[in-house]
Amino acid sequence: MTSVDNGLSPHGGTLVQRVQPLRSAGDVAGWPTIEVREQIAHECVNLAYGFFSPLTGFMGSADVASVADNMRLASGYVWPIPIVLDVPDAELTQAGVAAGDSILLTHQGNPLATLDVTEIFAADLSDLAGKVYGTTDPDHPGVQRTLNYANRFVAGDITLVCEPVISPPFDRYWRTPAQLRSELDELGWQRAVAHQTRNVPHSGHEYLMKGAFMEAQADGVLVSAVIGEKKVGDYIDEAIVLTHENLRTHGFFRDGIHRTTALLWDMRYAGPREAVFHALVRKNLGCTHHMFGRDHAGVGDYYGRYAAHEIFDDLPDLGIRSVLTLEWWYCPTCGGVAYEGICGHPDTKQDLAGRLIRSIIDGGAEPAPQTLRAETLALVRQCADEYGFGSPFVTEQYLSERTPVLTIPPAPV
């Protein structure tokens, strides 16, 4: 196949790649060490491989303030969500960490990344949450996350020193931006439209993807499934990636125009700001378009149904085009899946999201093809048995006993 260049530059113009594997554990012997939680480990990986280009590390105070106030990095590039490393002051003191030091970040007790500390600073967490999420309500999960940050942020460039091992079944779907750009090039996708998801696909999702594919005149749909922090009641990660891939393997998308990938990201539920973040990350993956439907990345009633559409009106050209769509629902009068911009029966519509689909899964009833593909339901049930301890939804047992998405191997001796 002839190589195709879609001409889409990463955000900032250069794909960040900061990976330098240790030759031996002795390379970092005696360094100040900070053990990081799973979320921070994911973000180290994303920074190092360029998912977050142009970021090269955790943000300093100038970038955090500029992002919160203006959705811009201090350099001027659009960036909507702070990427920060929070560490308790007491832990920094115990480790003897100060600005100017090089430190080792570990995860699962093994070396993960080095960090060249440029700044240690504090921030008004309530003010930061209010600016990023548009609310300080602690019931908002993103606000709660921010208010729970430790009392110091550590800024500086990171370098990945031990590459993660991705566990099955995610290893089949995880690609670095460089790998994925190469794969899209081999597929000949000059126009790739991204679909952000953290759900098992119902028919509304399927039609959303197909509608965006046609509107963008795309060569393919890239499903970018968010794999990360979960709360009880969410779909288990394994079911998300496997059921999306299942749409292609059963021919609902022909081979060659649909791919499923996994993104290590803990949702912030930041609504319109997170929509911008999603667009920039998928630009770094090589996508030319990104679809945005109803209530993208929202939670509760904190944002308008189409706030994720409106935010792009006030932004410069980001180098990735937004495909803005209204809601797809099931209309019993029309007798099938219908589009909000066309269907004239909004009073009798059946929302395909949430309660209806979950009732099908929980109740065990065979779905109508207009709501949830039978092939999808069968695989959801299989995932429940194989990965979810009997449930396709996250439980306390799943949270405590699931196989980690990634593991960090020990440094070479």
What does this structure look like?
This protein is α/β, with parallel strands linked by helices. It has two domains: 140 residues, Roll (Sulfate adenylyltransferase), CATH 3.10.400; 238 residues, Rossmann fold (3-Layer(aba) Sandwich), CATH 3.40.50.620. Helices cover 31% and strands 17% of the residues. The protein has 13 helices and 14 strands. The strands form four sheets. A five-stranded mixed sheet has the order 1-3-4-5-2. Helix 4 runs antiparallel to helix 5 and helix 8 packs antiparallel against helix 12. The chain is globular, with a radius of gyration of 21 Å. It starts with 32 loop residues before the first strand and ends in a 6-residue tail after the last strand.
Distinctive features:
single chain; 413 residues; alpha/beta; Sulfate adenylyltransferase; Rossmann fold; 2 domains; 5-stranded parallel β-sheet; 13 helices; 17% strand; disordered N terminus
Strand proportion: 15-25%
Number of strands: 14
Secondary-structure-derived class? alpha/beta
Rounded average pLDDT: 92
Strand line-up of the largest beta sheet: 1-3-4-5-2
N to C succession of SSEs: EHEHHEEHHEEHEHEHEHEHEEEHHHE
Q: How far do the termini sit from each other?
A: 43 Å
Low-pLDDT segments: 1-6
CATH homologous superfamily caption of the largest domain: HUPs
